[in-house]
Amino acid sequence: MRRPIFRGTQASALALLHRAEVLHLATTTPGGAPVLRALDGAVLPDGVYFHGARTGEKALCMGRAAVVSAVELVAHLPSWMSHPTRACPASTLYRSVQVHGTLREVEAPAEKARALEALMQRWQPEGRYDPVDPADPQYQGELSGTLVFAVPFESVDCKEKLLQNKEPEQILAILAGLWRRGQPGDVEAIEAVRAANPSVPAPPFLAADGVRLHAALPEEEIPAVEALLRDEYWWGPETAPLIAGAHRAATAWVGAREPGGALVASARAMSDGKTAWIYDVVVASSHRGRGLGKRLMTLLLDHPAVRHAPAVMLATRDAQGLYARFGFADKAQEPKRWPTMTDMVLRRGRG
Asked: Out of 3.40.630.30, 1.10.1520.10, 1.20.140.10, 3.40.640.10, which CATH number does the structure's domain 208-330 have?
């Protein structure tokens, strides 16, 4: 039984099952021998579906109690984030889910097709195949010969271990430690901990008046950032469809939301460690003139993906005064580091 403080919602559990790279299925044979397998599965509204060979060990386990589990590492926390010398505070932040049910074989062709189609959509979201249809002659043999089985959602148990048992000052110390360490995934861990502990105030590096700053924005914010950038001069009708991909590929993407949740500012960067490029610094018109652009740039320049780059670049035709406050200068006024080199660009039309 989960400690109530760590218990996640049904929606969180289903979301974790959907995004898990691998699911683990545990059951027993009729003789009581344990069976544990790592499998790819399809999560449908009524349960988790798998497929396999009819001659495999799993085929012997139909009708027996089963558990499907998935786990997602959020961050390993070293002891020094909580205590300068003691080893005991070292810990791990993670999300996990368990589905308990009775393993059953799926026999109806339509239900088997539904499960296999869901697996194909998971493996091959780009399509380029004929949908799995039980009436399609090309699939009737496969549907008959393939074992499809499911674990129904008889019980779903979700755990999110994200510092909910810690005092606010302890949480703030760990958030600061994650920010300074800056390993891959640490900024996302910061956002996960803050979401799980909404009553804890913002750490100093994310403090802002009237908005909630974020060290990382999720893919779900892409429609909102597209709306913010749609009318900006550097994104025209030809290139606006690239906004989503550009933000998915960013090595740093920070932003600000209103207390009610609407995205009102965003900025991203790309960095290879030697040079970082700043892109798409934008503040909603309703929030300009309040210093939010400066606060956003401060956060982005201190982001772990940007802070160690010896050179940080950007291109703009306005707001030069804002960027000058951070030390940016007109590159054209500087001597060329390599006088014999020519700056070149390849521009390709979209087709």
From this structure: 3.40.630.30
**CA–CA separation, 57 and 27 (whole Å):** 11
Average predicted confidence (pLDDT) for the chain: 94
What tens digit of pLDDT does each residue of 204-226 get? 999 999 999 999 999 999 999 99
CA neighbours within 13 Å on the CB side: how many for 221? 23
Q: What is the mean pLDDT of residues 1-17?
A: 90
Angstrom distance (rounded) from CA 284 to CA 14: 34
Q: What's the pTM value of the predicted model, to 2 decimals? A: 0.91
Domain positions in the chain: 4-161, 208-330
Q: Domain spanning 4-161: which superfamily?
A: Electron Transport, Fmn-binding Protein; Chain A (2.30.110.10)
Residue count (the chain): 351
Pairing of strands 311-313, 275-283: parallel
DSSP sequence for 164-189: TTS-HHHHHHHHHHHHHH--TTHHHH
- Please answer whether residues 56 and 147 qualify as being in contact, where contact means their C-beta atoms are separated by less than 8 angstroms: yes
Please state the rounded mean pLDDT for residues 15-31.
96
Q: Residue 228 in contact with residue 234, Cβ under 8 Å?
A: no
Residue with tokens 């008046």: 209
Is the pLDDT score of 323 beyond 50? yes
pLDDT at residue 5 tops 60: yes
Token pair 């993906």 is found at: 305
Residue 194 near residue 186, CB atoms below 8 Å: no
